[in-house]
Amino acid sequence: MTQSQPKFLNIYNTLYEEIQMGRFPGGQALPTEKVLCERFGVSRMTLRQAIKILVEDGVIESIRGKGHIVIPQMKGHHASSVTLLQHPLHQMSRQSMALGSINYRVDLESEYTNHLFPDHPSAVIAMERYYFNDGNETAKADALCFTFIPLNVIDTFQVNTQSERQMQRFVEKTVYSSAYQSDLKYSITKAPVFKNHKHVFEGGPSCWLVVENIYGNHASPILVNKWYLPQDHFEIIVSRVRTDA
After folding, report:
1. Which stretches make up the HTH gntR-type domain (predicted)?
2. For the chain, how are helix, strand and coil distributed in percent, rounded to 5?
3. Residues 129, 145 contacting (CB under 8 angstroms)
4. What CA–CA distance (Å, rounded) separates 87 from 92?
5. ∠ CA 30-31-34 to the nearest 5 degrees?
6. Cα separation of 145 and 127, whole Å?
7. Is the confidence at residue 92, as pLDDT, over 70?
8. pLDDT digits (tens, 9 = 90+) for 95-118
9. Rounded CA gap, 49 and 139, in Å?
C-alpha cells in the first residue's frame, strides 16, 4: 500500500483494474469480504468503503445472499464477424491440432507495441506458439501464433511468468473465459517463414493472417494474437442471420 492515498482508494483502484481486464467477468461475484480483507490486510470497514464506490460507479452491485456481482459492461469496439468468443485456431482448423511448443521473452516499449496497445505499456511479453496436426511428428509446424501481452495484464491475472504451464493456460484458455470481446481481422500473406532452435513454420504460397485483439472492459486490448494459418488446413465460415425477422 502506498501512503499517498487512503487504503480504500488503493483497494478500489486494484479491483477496478482487475474487473476492466476481465479477471472477474461480468455476472461473476467478487471474492468474499473475508477473502478480500485478508488479501489487502484491511478491516471490513475499510474494504466496504471501496466496495461502496464500486457500486456507486456502476461497476458492481451488491445482492443479498449472493455477494458483490460484477455488472457486465457494453463494449464500444467494432463487432467481429465471429460470434463465439473462442480459440480461433480450433474454430477454423479442418483437423485436430495441438500446441507443440511455446517460447516467450520480455520486450520493452517500442513503436510497434505502442501501435498494438493504445495505453502504451512499458513492457510486454512477446510469445510464439507452434501448433501441429495430430500425427505430425516432424519439426515443421502446421500453424503459428505470435502473442503480445502487457506486463500489467500478467500482474492483474497473477500469472507466474516462471511457469510455462501457467503462461500456456492463460493464453490458451483463461483469456477466452475472461474477455468481454475479441475482434478478428483477416488478410492473406504470401509464403511466411519463421523458425526457432526447435521448430520451423512455412505458411505455403497462401496463408491466412488473423490478427486477434482480445479485450476486457477497456479500450486497450488484454493481449494481441497474430495467427498464421495455411489455407490448406484452415477455413473461415461466417454465419449471418436476419435481425428483422
Report:
1. 5-73
2. 25, 30, 40
3. yes
4. 9
5. 135
6. 8
7. yes
8. 888 999 999 999 998 999 999 999
9. 56
Q: Which residue has the cell 443479498?
A: 64
Which residue from 122, 222, 107, 115 is spatially nearest to 171, judged by alpha carbons?
Answer: 222
pLDDT at 70 over 70: yes
Q: Which three cell numbers stand for residue 34?
A: 473475508
Specify the pLDDT at position 74: 53
* 34-42 LR contacts (CB < 8 Å, sep 24+): 36/11, 40/1, 40/7, 40/10, 40/11, 40/14, 41/1, 42/7, 42/8, 42/11
Helices (H), the chain: 7-20, 33-40, 44-56, 88-92, 111-116, 151-156, 164-169, 175-178
Q: Is 27 left (phi over 0), alpha (psi -120 to 50) or beta?
A: left
- 125-175 pLDDT, tens digit per residue, is 999 999 999 888 899 999 999 999 999 999 999 999 999 999 999 999 999
Q: Which three cell numbers stand for residue 228?
A: 498464421
